[in-house]
Every structure is written in C-alpha cells, then in structure tokens.
Amino acid sequence: MLPLSHRTKIVATLGPASSSPEIIRQLIEAGMTVARLNFSHGSYEDHATTIQRIREASEALDCPVTLLQDLQGPKVRVAQLPDRAGFQGQSAGAISLIQEAPIDLVPQDRADDCPNAIPIDYPFLAEEAELGMRILLDDGQLELEAIAIAPPVVTCKVIRGGLLKSRKGVNFPSLNLRLPSLTEKDRQDLEFGIVQGVDWVALSFVRTAEDIRTLKTFLRDRGAPNLPVIAKIEKPQAIAHLDDLVRECDGLMVARGDLGVEMKPEKVPLLQKKIIRACNQAGIPVITATQMLESMIENSRPTRAEASDVANAIADGTDAVMLSGESAVGKHPVAAVAMMARIASAMEPELEFVNFPPTEFSETNALSEALNVIDKIINLCCIAAFTTTGYTAKLAAAERPGVPVVAFTPEPLTYHRLNLIWGVIPLLIEEPVTSVESLVTAVENILRQRQIARSGDKILILGGSPIQQVRGTNFLKIHTLRDR
C-alpha cells in the first residue's frame, strides 16, 4: 500500500494523455485517489480498457482507486456549421461573430430554411426566449443578446465576438430549459457503467432534487440502488435548490466551469465556499473542480494563483480537488497530480477545521462527535473504523479529526468507494471477524503489517456490536499496541 501524505483526495480525469498502463500507475503513485471517466468523450471500448487498466494498477499497488463516472447530461450545443463561402465570412465549420452585428439562432432542424443562421440542438428556443436575455457560447467566450423573436428565429446582437466553431456549448442563464435530467445517452452510459462496476456517478447540469430522484430511480430499476450519486452544481437553479440537493444526493461537485458561465464570475468564489460548507455540515463529500491547475496543460509548473486556488479550496474544507484537461489531455498529467498532493501536504498540518453539530441524534453520530474530544486530548496514531457500508467511516471523517481514519471493511465495493472521502484510508479486511475481540486483534495486526502503527501507539477503534451490523456503530475503544 502506498504511503498517504495528504488527506484531501485527488480526482484526475483520464483521457488520451493518461490512459496508458504506465501513466495510470504513475498517477496512483503520485497521489491520484479517484479516476474520473468523462462520458462526454470516448467510446465504450476506450472506457472499458481504461477501467481494466485502473483496476489492474490498483491491485498491483495494493491501493484502492475510486471510479467516478461523469455523465454528459443535457448540454445544448451549436450544431454542425455549414461550410459556405461568405457565411459571416469564415472557415470550414466555423464563423466569425462581429461585435454589434446581428446574427440569427435557429433549431438545427430548421437550418436549411435559414442558411445564414447559427443552428443549435434545442428546438424550443424561440418559444422560451425573452427579449434582452443573454446567450453565451463556447464557455462564455462569446456573448449574444436577443433583440427580436420571430419563431423559429431568434435574432441577436453580438455583445462579445470571436470565432465560433461547431459543437461548442450554448448557455441560457435566465432560462429553465425543457431538457430531461437524464438524456437517452446518459441512460445508455449508465447501463455500461453499472456493468463495469463504477463506484460513483456524477449527474451533470442538475437543477432540482427531482433530477437526483430520477437518477436514483433509474439505478434502483437497474439493480444498482446503492450506487452513490454526486450532483454537479453548475446551474443557477441548483444554487436556488442547494439545501434540497444536499439532502437528496450522496455528494456534490462545485463544477466551476459552467457555473462561472451561467453566473457572474465574481460570484463563484463565495458560492464555492457556500457549497463546501453545506456539504461539511451535512457530512457528505464535495469535490472542487475545473481549471485548478489549468496552465499545467502546457507548462510543467502551475501559476502562483492556481496553487493558491487549490490551497484555498483545501482550507475551505473540500474533500477532493479535481483535474480535468490537465490530466486528460495535458502534457504533464503526473506532475499535475503530484503538485496537488504537495499543496495538500503543505496545507493540511496548518488547518483547524470547524466541527458542525450532528445532523442526526443517533448513537453513531454521538460517537463520531465524541471522537473529536478524544482526538484533542490523546495523542492518537489513527482512528480505526470498522464499516460494512462506509457510513461509520464517513461520519468519522466528517469530524475532520487530526489523524487519519483507517476504514476496515470486508466489502470490496465499500473499499473502492471510500477513497473519495477526505482523510479515509480504506483497507480490505479478509480474515473473518465475529466479535469485538477478534476485531481488535485484526485491526492491530493489519496496522502493524501496513506500518501505519507500531508498539506504543494509541488508536481509537470505532465499531458495532454485534459485529457487521449495518449502521450499528455503538462503541469506541482506546487501544494501545503492546510490545510483541
């Protein structure tokens, strides 16, 4: 098992730059704990090969890697632009939008009727459009304003111009679009992900808690009711329903790319803090994503501002920080993961996290609260949490203790899923455990073998009696490793 110098988890998106067996191994060795599979790109064959390579490297290194399936979601895009000379004057599959000039938008099925318009793959635009509304293209690089509506055409004025290429994204910040939370592609991708054994699934462009319920119903109908779901927060409607989403999902992602397009960029830093705090209070994991080390797509070192961005997210209490293009298509994927690990390792010893009151008044929550006091009084080596579902380990980690939470579990699914959770070191316990005494013996033996603890170290054991009772955590035990 690899030594873990940081408790903030690192999510790396795998892609052409990082899908070879050797690079995957190096990413794990550098500190990657979660591999993100972006289903906006790649074939099923590509993803299946990558998943197999991740599992093989994980087993060879004796280190769990969490597989995160990120669904594409209902993204509106520019359709294929026609290759016509004189079409706003530009190259094949692209047009130049000139500031202050008019330009028409039409549904792609009416493109032949309006040869000089921009076709988009959303059929209801003219029905829902409002005069004066903003329309953003290509991650907000280009901006239009609606000045006339004559169905099916919406005429716009170019506010911020530039080159527009086919298949670029289109955002309508003021509209609640008539789009399903799960597209047909998402459903097919989920079927594939379930068969492949992904550990978490992320739903894109979430608007309300009903979107999460729709996904969970689909998973239940497909025999995967316990597959945990992450809501990606990238729409204004999601911010408006944040409390409901926190209650309904298993984790959140601060997806700052589209969030910064749909909302004013100056609002994103405070929203990031608000989302992280809400997740910390609820005891669910949160990932901070997008452009964290963007310059490392090309450069071997990040900017000082990017390093500070990662550090501030860690100080805010994020469970994980994420790389997108940096690891998927960048020139330095391993260096980017290693840099995140170095920043986390430098930050964490200096932090004192806020401990929030319990969300439930149960025995397990009470014990999790108590471990905080014990951690502050006794010089512990680690907290050993015996868990079947992962629930106990997540509660313990949510307290942000000063020592690692070593999660002992007999369940391979739990073993892999827990590596997304801040401060948790998952360990698969294969020997039978039938009593508290055998649990203590197994914990001590494994901690010694893994060189996590040695004679004289104090550990805090969190578990349940009778053993292996789901959500049956009901005891704490301070245990000192004796000389052998």
Automatic annotation (TrEMBL):
Pyruvate kinase C-terminal domain ranges (all copies): 368-479
Residues annotated as domain Pyruvate kinase barrel: 6-337
Enzyme category, top tier: transferase
Catalytic reactions of this protein: pyruvate + ATP = phosphoenolpyruvate + ADP + H(+)
Pathway participation: Carbohydrate degradation; glycolysis; pyruvate from D-glyceraldehyde 3-phosphate: step 5/5
Needed cofactors: K(+); Mg(2+)
InterPro entries: Pyr_Knase (IPR001697), Pyrv/PenolPyrv_kinase-like_dom (IPR015813), Pyrv_kinase-like_dom_sf (IPR040442), Pyrv_Knase-like_insert_dom_sf (IPR011037), Pyrv_Knase_AS (IPR018209), Pyrv_Knase_brl (IPR015793), Pyrv_Knase_C (IPR015795), Pyrv_Knase_C_sf (IPR036918)
Residues spanning the signal sequence: none
Family: Belongs to the pyruvate kinase family.
Stored NCBIfam families: PRK05826.1, PRK06354.1, pyruv_kin
PANTHER family: PYRUVATE KINASE (PTHR11817)
Protein name in UniProt: Pyruvate kinase
Organism in which the protein naturally occurs: Lusitaniella coriacea LEGE 07157
